[in-house]
Amino acid sequence: MKQSAVSAITVAVVAAGVTALAVPAGAASAAPVAKASAKPVAVSTSWLTAKSGIALTYPKLATGARPALFETSNGGTSWRALPAPPFTYPADNDMPDATWGGGVIAVTNGTHIVVSRNAGRRWSAVGLAGLPKARTTFVGHITIADGRLFTLVNTIASSGTTTESVYSGSVKASTLRTVRGLSVSGGLAYGDLTAVGGAIQVSLGTNYTKAHYWLSRNGSSFTTAPLPCPASTSALLGGVRDGKPVALCSSSPSSSGPGSNTHQASIAPRLGGQFKASGQVLNSPNEQGFAAASDQDMVVATTFPLYVTGNAGHSWTARLPQNAGATWPDLSFAGSSVGVVVAVTVNNSLKIVGTVYRTTDGGQAWHALVLP
Prior knowledge:
Blueprint: H1 5-15, E1 41-47, E2 53-58, E3 68-72, E4 80-82, E5 97-101, E6 104-108, E7 113-116, E8 124-128, E9 136-145, E10 148-156, E11 162-170, E12 175-186, E13 189-194, E14 200-206, E15 210-216, E16 223-224, E17 234-241, E18 244-250, E19 260-267, E20 276-285, E21 287-292, E22 298-302, E23 306-309, E24 317-319, E25 331-333, E26 339-346, E27 352-359, E28 367-368
């Protein structure tokens, strides 16, 4: 389960040797976000193409802060404001997440979901049918494909049992329901879901001892397929690139040392084919995300830098270092070379900042986009 924004950054700051982190508290000012004197804190970004994307921001990561939503059609050179979703910054610090696709913008605050089918002019709540009673519930990143919404929902029962389930429904529906058979439970349950490359892939696992993997070409029916990773690791799915499914196999957090674990790329020759490990094993700070621009160009987001490969994992280079540590809420590629990432970290004044970075060369070089 994804850590909250503030807790993840706090851990990173302590690891970096910073003794205090000033986390603002209280409600945000009633002034419009676009007129705030401080730079907005980007928390999420989603792109339809290399040029067209949206960014969700807050004036600060404080309970009650009001969001702003922006759209660009020129790769982030300029932005226009869209009506923002009705989610103030949550008290539990779960990072709000936005997805744009199929004429729909979907946003979750980690507990609830809202969608807009008209560029933010009207937002509608989307419920989760049959959600079990749980001590905690976390709604993950929303994927839009084949006219449907998909998300992973993680619940922890009072007994401590964790369940990871796939929920889905039409983009026009007011309720998402569990996809039959696509759920696992255990002491620790986790998973990943992607529709990059035209097919929906789901990977679920428990306790780093059991794993399952499903494919769908239409969003309605799923079939099992060979695992992308050994059950002793978790699979982060990079989608289908150049006709080949790409994944990253990561060991359990902090399994190779305090705050670090290992990773290795895994590639199948075709959808439904047998995956094979590719390149060397990377030992790095714990990973938070993974994306593939091609079957050669891949990026891993870790607690501190990004790690980038241009040769299917045979060598890795650290890029965009974050000396105080960072949370990377979104990392994706809209094509074979253009990608974006959001980094939320602390600056030298111990203020939380969130920045959208863009690459045009598969992740080797990144530049910050200026938001309103």
